[in-house]
Amino acid sequence: MKALAFLATLATGIVLLYGTRDFAAWGDAASPASRHVSPVYIQQAVKQTHVPNIVTAILGDYRGYDTMFETVVIYCAGLAVICVLRRQKT
Amino acid sequence: MKLLQERTRDRLAGEDLIVRTAVRLLVPFIQLFGLYVIVHGHYSPGGGFQGGVILGSSFILLALAFDLRTSLRFLSVRVNAVLSNVGVLIYTGVALLCALAGGLFLDYSALDRILPLGPVAWRSMGIFLVELGVGIAVMCIMASLFWDLGSGGEMDEGL
To answer: Cβ A53–B44 below 8 Å, yes or no?
Structure first.
């Protein structure tokens, strides 16, 4: 069973490593992300949201769903710990 | 010297006058800094998550230097539970309000139809409201995680 798990892990690792061959080079200015999304954020974020910190503008506005569910994930973590551990005398 | 050794022998590491005084002096500044990090997220690195963790750590520090009951005196279990829900509800509530005002979910510029400040100003304002909600939620959840894990759920003595 252990050998099977090891083989499965190895196979998944190889597939994932093979997938990275198609990635753009690190910091490649011609990659789709750098040509398409990033310039829009850099040029438009301050104009569209009046937030000088572009990171906050992206996290809070453009990627609002992501941040919302990050908060929900933390909330669920707290809820799970309370459900499992807490036995408070009331 | 002998007297001092005898006095400190059966004390825990946290029950130290220097540690307690330092923590008592530090906690207000830590909380102020946490608020600053949340509110100033528009202009400098920071935001709801980071500021919330700093605020929560001030309560964890109180629980470490004193004991868990001292920490619970400043932020009770009930208030903690209510505030962590309120924090998440602020975020989802603002998002829902945008949808109800006729825009898209999480499109803060739609809030302009409720209170006309200008769509761009509302996008900035919406980010602030949302970060505030995140900060409140993260503060309460960090503190409650420590309380539960540190005391095994008893919420009594703790570490």
So the answer is: yes
